[in-house]
Amino acid sequence: MLGGFDDWDRTLAVMDELRRRMGFHLEEQDGMSPDWGASLYGEAGSWPRVNVSDTGQSLVFEADVPGLRDKHIEVSIRQDTLTLSGERKRPDFTGYAVHRQERRAIKFSRSFALPCPIDPEKARANVRDGVLTITLEKAPEAQPKRIAVVSQ
Questions:
Q1: pLDDT tens digits for 2-12?
Q2: Which of 59, 61, 74, 106 can pair with 136 through a Cys bridge, CB separation 3.0 to 4.6 Å?
Q3: Are 21 and 75 members of one domain?
Q4: 3-state DSSP call for residue 149?
Q5: Cα separation, 46 vs 122, whole angstroms
Q6: pLDDT greater than 80 at residue 110
Q7: Are 34 and 17 in contact (CB under 8 A)?
Q8: Total domain count for the chain?
Q9: Is residue 151 in some structural domain?
Q10: Of 50, 84, 83, 48, nearest to 67 (Cα)?
C-alpha cells in the first residue's frame, strides 16, 4: 500500500519513464525489423504504408516510398488485384566506414483487392517526393450514375 504522496509521485514518475521508454522502442520497431519479423503496427509485409481513396470516378492509391524512384517500383493489375512491389538495395559501403545504418535494404510486395471493376488501360502511376500515386479509373459500369429528379 502506498504510504503517502511521495510514494505516489515516485510511482507516477516510474510509470511515466516506463511509458516513455516503451514508446521509444515501439517507434523504433515500427517498420521492417528483421529482429521482430513483423511490425508492431501490422504484418511485416505492410510496407509501404498506403492510403486508398475513392473519388467516385477512380480509385487513388498513395504509398510512401521514400528514396525510391520509378525504376525501383513495379505496379501491376491482374484481374481484381493491384500489386505494388519493388526493392531498395543496400548502398555500397566500399571505401568508408558506416557508424549507423537505420535505412535498411528492403524488398516488398503488397497486394490489394480492388473493390470494383476498373479500366486497366486508363491506369496511371507516378512517383514524386517519395510518394507513389496510382490512379485507377473505374470501369463505366462501376462509376456512379446521376439520376435526374423531375418535378411533376
A1: 555 567 778 87
A2: 59
A3: no
A4: coil
A5: 27
A6: yes
A7: no
A8: 2
A9: no
A10: 48
